[in-house]
Amino acid sequence: MTEEKVICCNCEEEEALKDYPTDLCKNCREAYIKYPVPMWIKALSVIVLIVVIFSLMHFKSSLIGAVNYERGLKAEKELKYVTAQNAYKKALDQFPKSELLKSRLFIASVKGDNLDESDKIYDEILEITYYDSDKDLFNEVQTAVDLYGKHFFITEEIEKIIGNETLSMSQVISTIENLTKSNKSENSCGAYYYLGTAYYANGEYEKAISAFNSAYSINPEIYFFKIPIATCYSDLDNYEKAKEVLKETFIFNKEYGPAYVSLSFINLKEHNYDEALKNAKEAYSINKNNLNAIEAIVISNHYLKNENERDKYIKILEENNYSDIDRVKDIVNGKIKDYE
Questions:
Q1: Distance between terminal CA atoms of the chain?
Q2: Same domain, 164 and 302
Q3: What are 36-90's pLDDT values in tens digits?
Q4: Burial level of 46, CB count in 10 A (0-12/13-18/19+)?
Q5: Domain end call among 110, 131, 150
Q6: Whole-angstrom Cα distance, residue 311 to residue 76?
Q7: Residue 234 included in any domain
Q8: CA 40 to chain CA mean position, Å
Q9: Global confidence as pTM
Q10: What is the band of 1 on the pLDDT scale with cuts at 50, 70, 90?
Q11: Which residues form the TPR repeats (predicted)?
């Protein structure tokens, strides 16, 4: 049986080529292939491409911002305020005008005891209007603002006392003691803190602990007070109590660098150099600009005989003009034997 001939659907004269979905002859098929695309189609295609690329770029930016915002929220819930701050900063890089992100950064910085970061955005926080539509966030920010204010517990009266160079240490102590007994509640926290500082400078560590604890009892949200309390216990050679006090700060902030640094120096006094290095590195991982943490890393590595690591971190201290660099070098050279 003869196969039926299929005619080209375009010219209706030549036989169509086989095995193609459209019935076109050879000449017509080649003509269609060579037919130029109209300029308006090309122009439209370019416009569409530009729109697609712009949309993808904007989508990427939105995605980065959203991911970091969620990371920040998660870190806050885990009491990891340094991680939260870093995440919110990355999100703000994508959306620098976001009042929500600025608010969350402020909250995380205050809770994380990072007053330098809080200072940078405090004025902007007071001008934000976003809170009109988010009362829960407003309450969070208000609580953070109150806590931020409590950190500035030095009053003009206290400043005059500690700045008076004509007063002896005993006179400073007695004058500030009188302030703690006054009815001026706004002076109380600062008075007890600076009384503790004066007692400490005078070598009266037990009295200093009592004063610092009084300051903490007035403002228990300020976990920074745990640091001088622990320092006093450490100087009394009560290392276990000092470490216990420092670890209490992690109830408030899992990434509290000053506590890790203090733990490291207590470990050095105990000659537990491995633990000292561990805590120092933890502090350094939280904040690469923490020169006290780097000092502890240097000393720990020195006693662990990790000379290459020790020298690497000494160089960082030198590059940053660390104020105690001579003391660190004296420890390394064996002139100071505090931790042997």
A1: 107
A2: yes
A3: 555 555 555 555 555 444 444 444 456 577 889 999 999 999 999 999 999 999 9
A4: exposed
A5: 150
A6: 36
A7: yes
A8: 53
A9: 0.80
A10: very low
A11: 189-222, 257-290
